[in-house]
Amino acid sequence: MILSHGLVVALAVVLLLVLIAARTPIFIALSVSGIAGLLCLSGFDGLKLVPLAMGAQLQEYALVAAPLYILLGEALAVTGLGRDLFGAAHRWFTRVPGGLGASAIASSTLFGAMSGVSISSVALIGRMAVPEMLSRGYKPGFAAGSVAASGALAMLIPPSLMFILYASVTGESVASLFAGGIVPGLLLAALMIGYVVVRAKLDPNSAPRDGESFGWRERWVALGKISPALVLIALVLGSIYTGFATPTEAAAIGALLALAMTGVVYRKLGWTNLKLIFASTATVSAAMLAIVGSAFVFTQTLVVARVPETLTDFVVGLDVHPYVVLIGIMVVLLLLGCLVDAASLLLVVTPILAPAIEELGFDPLWFGVLLVVNLEMAVITPPVGLNLYTMKSVVPELDLAEIFRGIAPYLAIEFALILLMIAFPETATYLPSLIT
């Protein structure tokens, strides 16, 4: 019996979702469903595509930067920088309602500009910020939500691993994607801080003020403690945008500088920490690259079944405004993000959606930034949201239900940013236009 392409794709997707629901590791779920789809479509000859697809994708030069940026973040994580970032932000936001929540968001923003991995940011900042907030009477949902949501900023603010993955699939410039994420990332951080301040003002019981104050000297001293990290951010991003280095070369420079900074400035590069840095880097990098390779196997099923072409023809043929289609795509991605982790979802949907987006007349770079903002919601949306469970693991006394409640307002803020970016595409395209 010969199955139609549409039925095979539907069965492959159902198998993928069943495996994910059964808590099968995502790279196994993608590989098994992809191989099953290829077998149904092309028989055993289709399996020849599996090693070719994985090899071709993993040889993509843009992916070389990913382990290097992970190494950079892991090196800084052992220095105690998270404590210094939170301490500096607290001294500058102490007079603001909900100051500790605002400080957590600000410090997550800064660490995101060094790491690119959202769960690292949640673990590093959450370990210090949330217990501090709880000890001062902050409601658990308020405290956990501010850290779990702002940790996702690492996906949007360069150096973003999500942009590297998007570039590896579409061929877009990593440097341009990095530039495109700066304004939306900072705008999203400002909106989150704004929400915290307004919420604390309207409901003081959520975030009681403790009357603590700091002088200007203490603020500048605290800022001085994190100045090496700020210089590192400036050097990495500056080398990219001045044309001195490519994003991959800048990643290598940043990783070397981070290791040197850990040893010379912070005196934390002992043998134990060195093993921890490289072990963590290898673990995260291997997991990410396994997902990249397996996702590409799954997308081969979609390519063989001509799903991208079929979807493009369908979308272009719709008698509706392109922006209606775009908003529909964003809603579908939001729902899928509740079931599939962000990186896997990006790698699966990008080859399908990118041709249709271009046919509708949208800028693929702008769509890439929009897609990453949407996928930020995936890491803070139950039941799969990795940031939520990371938050629970670093502060075990928190109840998951409280974390879920605390995160809800930030989902609305993220979606508001999506609508803002649709209304004003320049938020993501202006800076890239200056460097091209």
From TrEMBL:
InterPro entries named in the record: DctM, TRAP_DctM
Residue ranges crossing the lipid bilayer per the database entry: 31-50, 62-82, 102-130, 142-169, 175-198, 219-244, 250-269, 276-303, 323-353, 365-386, 406-424
Molecular function as annotated in GO: transmembrane transporter activity
Domain TRAP C4-dicarboxylate transport system permease DctM subunit, first and last residues per copy: 13-426
Keyword Cell inner membrane: yes
Cellular compartment(s): Cell inner membrane
Keyword flag ATP-binding: no
One cellular component (GO) term of this entry: plasma membrane
Major place of residence: membrane
UniProt membrane topology term: Multi-pass membrane protein
Alphabetical keyword list: Cell inner membrane, Cell membrane, Membrane, Transmembrane, Transmembrane helix
Superkingdom, taxonomy of origin: Bacteria
Protein name per Swiss-Prot or TrEMBL: TRAP transporter, DctM subunit
Organism: Saccharopolyspora flava
Organism classification: Bacteria, Bacillati, Actinomycetota, Actinomycetes, Pseudonocardiales
